[in-house]
């Protein structure tokens, strides 16, 4: 399985995470990803969100580059997962607080 670039856990910044969380669409996407135990296929998420595919792709990239998600590529499909362990080590309690406040 091929992976796309992700920041190392020790390079995830609070400013980057907060920027990624500042958009309501990205919060919704993050909440959906958190609900999926084995990750969420990008195509499934994109179908359920009332945004253009290019906009959804942009939001995926912002979440990934901020260190909130990990995207794995398998052939033509992509699966997105939360980087919960990395985020809990870097910013304890932040992700559970954010997820508790999201209305999905």
UniProtKB/TrEMBL annotation:
The keyword Glycoprotein does not apply. Gene3D superfamilies: Winged helix-like DNA-binding domain superfamily/Winged helix DNA-binding domain. Residues 6-102 form the HTH arsR-type domain. GO terms for molecular function: DNA binding; DNA-binding transcription factor activity. CDD domains: HTH_ARSR. It comes from the Bacteria. Pfam families: HTH_20 (PF12840). SUPFAM superfamilies: Winged helix' DNA-binding domain. This is ArsR family transcriptional regulator. Transmembrane segments: none annotated. InterPro entries: ArsR-like_HTH, HTH_ArsR_DNA-bd_dom, HTH_MetalResp_TranReg, WH-like_DNA-bd_sf, WH_DNA-bd_sf. It comes from Labedaea rhizosphaerae. Keywords: DNA-binding, Transcription, Transcription regulation.
């Amino acid at each position: 399985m091929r992976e796309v670039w992700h920041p190392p856990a020790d390079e995830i910044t609070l400013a980057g995470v907060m920027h990624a969380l500042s958009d309501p669409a990205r919060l919704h996407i993050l909440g959906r990803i958190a609900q999926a135990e084995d990750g969420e296929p990008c195509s499934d998420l994109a179908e359920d969100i009332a945004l253009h595919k290019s906009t959804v792709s942009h939001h995926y990239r912002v979440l990934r580059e901020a260190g909130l998600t990990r995207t794995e590529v398998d052939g033509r499909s992509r699966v997105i997962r939360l980087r919960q362990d990395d985020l809990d080590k870097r910013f304890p309690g932040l992700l559970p607080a954010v997820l508790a406040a999201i209305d999905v």
